[in-house]
């Protein structure tokens, strides 16, 4: 997976294939950011189990394995 963060867009890739693009310039942060890896708890990670009850989509003992992280800054010409 890869994320290309440019001044006017953020593009996500999986196995070299573009899977999403965000181009709302006003909502793209233009300040220094930090990278954080975690199990995000959001609507995509939760499943509805009742009228107002949600439960995680993962199981006890699940792990996230990260082989490596590569961060670099594009060079402007």
Task: Give a quick precis of the structure.
The protein is mainly beta. It is built from no helices and 5 strands. The protein has a 3-stranded antiparallel sheet, with no helix packed on it.
Distinctive features:
single chain; mainly beta; two-stranded antiparallel ribbon; 77 residues
What would you say this structure looks like, in words?
The chain is mainly β. It contains no helices and five strands. It has a three-stranded antiparallel sheet with strand order 1-2-3, with no helix packed on it. Strands 4-5 form a two-stranded antiparallel ribbon. The mean pLDDT is 78.
List the helices and strands and how they pair.
Elements: E1 2-6, E2 9-14, E3 17-22, E4 46-48, E5 54-56
Antiparallel strand pairs: 1-2, 2-3, 4-5
Strand order of the largest sheet: 1-2-3
Which overall shape is indicated by the principal axes computed on the Cα atoms? Answer: extended
User: Structural class, judged by helices and strands?
Assistant: mainly beta
Task: Tell me how many strands there are.
Answer: 5
H/E element string? EEEEE
* Cα-to-Cα separation, first versus last residue: 26 Å
Strand content: 25-35%
- Rounded mean pLDDT is 78
Computed over alpha carbons, the radius of gyration is: 16 Å
Sheet with most strands: 3 strands, antiparallel
Low-confidence stretches: none
| Annotation field: number of helices | 0
**Share of helix among residues?**
under 10%
């Amino acid at each position: 997976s890869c994320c290309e963060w440019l001044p006017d867009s953020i593009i996500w890739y999986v196995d070299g294939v573009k899977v999403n693009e965000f181009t709302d310039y006003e909502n793209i942060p233009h300040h220094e950011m930090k990278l954080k890896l975690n199990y995000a708890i959001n609507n995509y990670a939760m499943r509805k189990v009742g009228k107002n009850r949600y439960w995680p989509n993962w199981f006890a003992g699940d792990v996230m394995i990260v082989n490596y992280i590569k961060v670099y800054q594009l060079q402007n010409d």
